[in-house]
Design goal:
Length: about 325
């Protein structure tokens, strides 16, 4: 009986120790699986065993690592998706704002045109002088045509499949050609050009679009320069950059207004715009083209008036 009792107690003690050894590992595996179920994949099974429970723990560790990696990748893609959605919403808001502005801008000349034509048809008051008002109606229609052309230009650039046709361009020749094309308009207003252009200043850009940029900037300078005033134009090399700049004699602009100058249809002075003409999209298109090329630019007040500077890249740097 004594030996049996001792044997029984020893068996119980061994069974208890073995059970604790087995259940501890099982509880550890259970703890790891519960945390994984709660999407906590940092937890690991740390028991050093070579039996089936140890293999199960290693498999859980491997699964946890893969799930953690997949979750991190999913979070990253979700962040990118949120950014894309936010960007899409911003673009949609900009597009809605642009078309709203277009509708507003077209409404006024259409109303004027309808009023003039109706007045001529009914021969009301001064509208009996048809030759005079036909000329005015033609000017309004011409202004609307120019605006529509600019709107189509904007739509072309904003198309998702639009790509730049980059080639090497002699900027010095391009600027000289644009000035020659617009020289008559400057002479009519008594303006004087002061040109300082370095030779052999080449850039890599879309020739048609960049010609539009220079044409818009030079045209703006001519329109808004004081009568019998001066315009300074320069092209020079600075390090790996080619700098185009133009400065004209005119009134300074409020610093708060400068960032808005390139917004669609933005005008500082409504009466001034009516006097000088323009679609209100010139600088907006210029900004879009420069952003497509990734060419930095700035507009600033100077002692003489307003200066615009565009930083272009040489062909070798643009190719890198």
């Amino acid at each position: 009986p004594m030996l049996g009792a001792i044997t029984f107690l020893a068996a119980l003690a061994i069974a208890a120790l073995y059970t604790k050894y087995i259940t501890r590992s099982i509880l550890k595996v259970s703890e790891v699986s519960k945390k994984m179920a709660n999407l906590d994949f940092r937890v690991r099974y740390t028991e050093d065993r070579r039996d089936e429970i140890g293999i199960l723990g290693e498999n859980l560790n491997e699964l946890s690592e893969k799930l953690e990696s997949a979750l991190d990748e999913l979070k990253e893609k979700n962040t990118d998706l949120e950014k894309s959605i936010k960007l899409e919403q911003q673009l949609e808001q900009q597009q809605m704002a642009f078309f709203s502005a277009v509708s507003h801008e077209l409404k006024t000349p259409i109303t004027i045109l309808k009023g003039q034509i109706q007045g001529m048809l009914l021969e009301v008051g001064g509208y009996k002088d048809r030759d005079r008002y036909l000329k005015r109606s033609f000017e309004v229609a011409n202004s609307m045509e120019n605006m529509v052309q600019e709107i189509l230009y904007v739509s072309k650039i904003r198309t998702s499949g639009f790509e730049l046709k980059l080639i090497d361009i002699p900027l010095h020749q391009l600027v000289e050609n644009v000035i020659k094309e617009q020289e008559d308009m400057a002479i009519d207003r008594g303006l004087q050009f002061h040109i300082r252009i370095e030779e052999s200043t080449w850039i890599r850009a879309d020739e048609a679009l960049f010609t539009k940029v220079i044409s818009n900037v030079v045209g703006n300078a001519i329109k808004y320069t004081n009568e019998d005033g001066n315009i300074w134009v320069g092209v020079y090399k600075r390090g790996e950059e080619i700098i185009f700049w133009i400065e004209n004699e005119t009134e300074s602009i409020d610093e708060k207004e400068i960032p808005k100058l390139c917004d669609a249809f933005y005008r500082i002075d409504k009466s001034r715009n009516k006097r000088t003409g323009g679609s209100g999209l010139g600088l907006y298109i210029t900004k879009m083209i420069l952003e497509q090329h990734q060419f930095p630019y700035c507009i600033e007040n100077t002692e003489k008036g307003i200066k615009v500077e565009i930083r272009c890249y040489e062909p070798t740097r643009r190719l890198l």
